[in-house]
C-alpha cells in the first residue's frame, strides 16, 4: 500500500560534502542533502549548473572524489548494489521518447519496464500477470485506453505518460522527472504535472529536475537551487521561489506569481 502524503519514512539517500571532478574541474559540489521515503524535492537551476550530475550521484552513474568518510550513502550503505538502487528508483526524462524507434502497443512498452527493456524482452517469457501490472500502471495515470495503441501514433504528452507508467510498473519508491515537460504542448504539460501530483499523493517520492517553477507541483515543498556546479540553497519553496532569489539564480530580473500553490515566472521588464 502506498504511503500517504505527508508521512515520511526511512532515509533513502544522503550526500555529504561530495565533489564530482572531471578533467581537473569540479562539476558539482553538494554540502549536505538527505531524502526520506515519501519526500518530494525540486532541483532548479540554469543549463549546465549540475542538475543532471546530481541525479547521476544518486544513481551511481558518477562517483564523487574519494574521502575516508563516504560522501554518498544509500539506505546507510557505503557500497550498495546497483540492482538495489534500480529497484527503488525510476527515471523519466524528456529524451526517452526519442529512443523508441519501433512500432509497438503502448502496453508492450510498459511491460518492458519490468525487465529493463524498451519493449518486450527477447530473453524472457512475458506472463499474463506482467500485462495486468502494466495495465494497472497505465490506469493509475488515466491512460488505460491507449494500452493497445501504437506508441508512435500517440501525442507526445500521451507517450510521455506511457513512459512514466513504464517506470511505475516496478513500484519504485522514488521517481525522478528530468525536464518532464520539455517539448510538450499545454495539454501534455497539464497531464504530466497531474501525473506527478497523483504519484506524490500516493506516497511516491518525486525528484523533479527543471528550469521552470511552473513544473513544481504543489505537493513538492522543498527546492534545491543549483548554480555554477554547486547546490548553494536548499529550503522550503516559499523561500526559494521568490523573485529576488530566482533573479539571482538565473542572472536576469524576474517576477514570481503564485496561485493556489502553483508558481509561475515572468520577466521584470522596464517601462
UniProtKB/TrEMBL annotation:
The keyword Transmembrane helix does not apply. PROSITE patterns: ABC_TRANSPORTER_2. Residues 13-253 form the ABC transporter domain. It comes from the Bacteria. InterPro entries: AAA+_ATPase, ABC_transporter-like_ATP-bd, ECF_ABC_transporter_ATP-bd, P-loop_NTPase. Keywords: ATP-binding, Nucleotide-binding, Transport. One of its GO terms (cellular component) is ATP-binding cassette (ABC) transporter complex. Gene3D superfamilies: P-loop containing nucleotide triphosphate hydrolases. One of its GO terms (molecular function) is ATP hydrolysis activity. Belongs to the ABC transporter superfamily. This is ATP-binding cassette domain-containing protein.
